[in-house]
Amino acid sequence: MNLYHLRYFVTLAHMEHYTRSADLLAITQPSLSHAISSLESELGVKLFKKNGRNVTLTKYGKSFLTDAEEILEKLDTSVGSLQLAGKGEGRIDIAFLRTLGSDFVPRLLRKFLDENQGKQIDFSLHCDKVITDEILKGLKEQKYDIGFCSKINDEPLIEFIPVAKQDLVVIVPPDHPLASKSEIHLEETLEYKQIIYKSGSGLRHIIDHLFDQIGAYPDVSYEIAEDHVVAGFVANGFGIAVAPDIPIIHSLNLKVLPLISPSWQRNFYMATLKDAYHPPVVDVFKQFVIEQARNNLDYRTI
């Protein structure tokens, strides 16, 4: 089916006059008549009927008009989006860990938009119930252009670029035996039940490695995926936790203890799919993030 014929059909359906439609389309009337005849022949039904000097849609034409307009609208929208992307504008799909959503990501996006005023740039944000494994899976499926997450080893298809740091701490309820301390060694946590992050979280790999270093593993009461839920359970006495030093833990009824040993910082990375095609707007944003990270190597998320 000829795309031009679809556009001719929609124009004639609205104008209901061959001569005026041909003038609007900048084609000859015989060309328009031939296009409509070809379309009707291909479909096997009449789309128009004569009404004096005008034409009107048949019942088949009315039904086809609805579908034709929807198809052309979707096509025009898609073409417009691609043309914007080719000019360094358009939409960027970003997935990120929720812990980065209170400060790091919004601050980064705001600065990028401020430096690119006048351009049509939209961000599609994905952070609800998103953990590192899901972000990397989404990158491989090309659902996301860029992810901000932890680094997982043995991911040869993913490029990881460090962009921010976060200290790890131990959080305990204020009436806990450890709450009297001002700092803590990981060995001191072993006699207490702990809440740890679910497998698949980038932080779980880090915490498991810390316990491997001291040659022991805690008694686990719950495995939870999200930072704010971990903090909430600790605040209500379900266990203690090794957690990132993020704003929410300072707003809850918790004692925050700096982790002295094993010493560790949680690093966050910009993750992208290697060797994948990215439109110019994504490449521009990626380079912007790299420059921001280079200029703020000690940037912390709190």
TrEMBL record:
Residues 1-58 form the HTH lysR-type domain. Gene3D superfamilies: 3.40.190.290, Winged helix-like DNA-binding domain superfamily/Winged helix DNA-binding domain (1.10.10.10). The keyword Transcription regulation applies. GO terms for molecular function: DNA binding; DNA-binding transcription factor activity. InterPro entries: LysR_HTH_N, LysR_subst-bd, WH-like_DNA-bd_sf, WH_DNA-bd_sf. GO terms for cellular component: protein-DNA complex. SUPFAM superfamilies: Periplasmic binding protein-like II (SSF53850), Winged helix' DNA-binding domain (SSF46785). Signal peptide: none annotated. The keyword DNA-binding applies. Belongs to the LysR transcriptional regulatory family. This is LysR family transcriptional regulator.
